[in-house]
Amino acid sequence: MVRYVVPTYARRARGGVDPFTLMQREMENMLENFTRALQPVEGAAETGFFSPVVEAKEDDKGLTIEVDLPGVDPEDVSVELSEGVLTIKAERKMVKDIDEEEKNGVKYHIAERAYGTFLRRLSLPWEADEDKIEASFDKGVLKVFVPRKEEEKKTKKIAVKAA
């Protein structure tokens, strides 16, 4: 068995966050996105989940996340932040019962809409200013802005003594 020793300076970076933990989170997100793309659309309605498109972009002010949620009521959307993980949950409810309509003589030729629950968790790579998080819902698009917490500049003046 091969053991890798990580130097002390490499264990903590970016304000105390382990760079290997960041890399692991990024790999998990990539795999989640890849497997989501492989799911068949027609199976989404049967499993009770739907997969809307998510876009996350970061700048020096914070992180902006946009989620396409057409057909979802704003009351059926929740956004939470806990221990550095942002959780977005939404539910698209079925308006009509397809089985009941078929009993009444209605025949569907195409039924591709997905209904059910959407849940996405995003690990934040920095500490967020929880009091200033904003979320809005307009025309079926959820927009969440998570600002960075402003770090206090801790500068300590050190007196220089003559020898």
Supply database-style keywords.
163 residues; alpha+beta; Immunoglobulin-like; four-stranded antiparallel beta sheet; three-stranded antiparallel beta sheet; 4 helices; 23% helix
Write the layout of secondary structure elements.
Blueprint: H1 8-11, H2 19-38, H3 41-47, E1 54-58, E2 62-68, E3 77-82, E4 85-92, H4 98-103, E5 116-123, E6 134-138, E7 141-147
Antiparallel strand pairs: 1-2, 2-7, 3-4, 4-5, 6-7
Give your account of this protein's structure.
There is one protein chain. 23% of the residues lie in helices and 28% in strands. With 163 residues, the protein is of the alpha+beta class.
Q: Could you give a quick summary of the protein structure above?
A:
Helix content is 23%, strand content 28%. With 163 residues, the chain is an alpha+beta fold. The strands form 2 sheets. A 4-stranded antiparallel β-sheet has the order 1-2-7-6, with no helix packed on it.
